[in-house]
Amino acid sequence: MAPDNTICETSLDWDDRYLVGHPTMDDTHLEFVELLAVLARADDSRLPGALDDLARHLEAHFSQENHWMKSTGFPAGECHVEEHTKVLDSLREVQEHLASGDTQIVRDFAEALADWFPGHTDYMDSALATWLVKASHGGAPLVLRRAKAPSPA
């Protein structure tokens, strides 16, 4: 855990492996990763604003996905919506703690989101993207990922 007033770094950086083949969803996921990085780097005085920015993003992000699931009859929608609800409930608790001066919980929440996002994207969002693309175009999403540069020896 990072001590108070210490900037923490999440273990989440954007990677093309988070692309799911639905351009709107992919753009939203990139924005999420960027806002999470801002939150993780924020000093204590900037945490409230950074958390509010992330909260607005998550509410819009999840609302859009929930709408897509409901409007298209996505079979796994209930589980997916439930996961969104749990994240938003946790967010609200974190906001309450921050209002009481607890900055560490924000840093812990940022790390928890960084741990959660890859699995959520790999399983839930990729399934939703496949469903949406199949419904609109009759096939599976096409995802082009950039090759990673080789690591220096």
Structural description of this entry:
- The chain has 153 residues and is mainly alpha-helical.
- It has a single domain (20-137), classed as Hemerythrin-like (Four Helix Bundle (Hemerythrin (Met), subunit A), Up-down Bundle).
- 67% of the residues lie in helices and 0% in strands.
- It is built from 4 helices and no strands.
- The protein has helices spanning 23-41, 47-72, 77-99, 104-137.
- Helix 1 runs antiparallel to helix 4 and helix 2 (47-72) runs parallel beside helix 4.
- The longest helix is centred in the C-terminal third of the chain and has 34 residues, at 104-137.
- The mean pLDDT is 89.
Mean pLDDT: 89
CATH class: Mainly Alpha
Count of helices?
A: 4
pLDDT < 50 runs, ≥5 residues? none
Strand content: under 5%
Q: What Rg, in angstroms, do the CA atoms define?
A: 17 Å
From the coordinates shown, what is the CATH architecture? Up-down Bundle
How do the strands and helices of this protein lay out in sequence?
Layout lengths: L22 H19 L5 H26 L4 H23 L4 H34 L16
Helix pairs in contact: 1-2, 1-4, 2-3, 2-4, 3-4
Give keywords:
single chain, 153 residues, mainly alpha, Four Helix Bundle (Hemerythrin (Met), subunit A), 4 helices
Produce a short descriptive summary.
The chain is 67% helix and 0% strand. It is built from four helices and no strands.
